[in-house]
Amino acid sequence: MTPGELRDFCLSFNAAVEDFPFNPETSVFKVLGKMFALTSLDGRPLTVNLKCDPDDAIRLRDDHPGLIVPGWHMNKRHWNTVTVGSGPDGRPEGGLPDRVVRELVEDSYDLVVAGLPRAERLRLDRP
After folding, report:
1. What is the value of pTM for the model shown?
2. Could you confirm whether the keyword Transcription appears in this record (predicted)?
């Protein structure tokens, strides 16, 4: 997954937006003001911080040592840093397969949406 593909995938979710609250190099993807992904798209290797259920976070770290680690500068109980399978130039860098990255991004988005107030969740379901 290239940085552009990661960005496009994060923005493909309902009401997802890209923001730069920290600096111009750090993309923060949010749904209704709540962060579900954080990445430096020009980073080498390409990594993304994703929200994760605490029990799943531990299992994922055990299943993918070195590729999924506790979230850097995040609450390590609820966030993982995930190494994506390619760098800024699209060349493979030994990260996770695209399918796994997509599943983890989607899980992160779903967790954040599940934590939104009911009225906001219902608004997301409307066309």
Report:
1. 0.90
2. no
pLDDT tens digits along 67-102: 999 998 888 889 999 999 765 555 556 789 899 999
52-78 as b/e: b if 16+ CB within 10 A:
beeeebeebbeebeebbbbbeebeeeb
- Nearest CA among 31, 46, 55, 6 for reference residue 112: 31
- pLDDT for 122 equals 87
Domain coverage including residue 9: 3-125
Q: How many domains would you assign to the chain?
A: 1
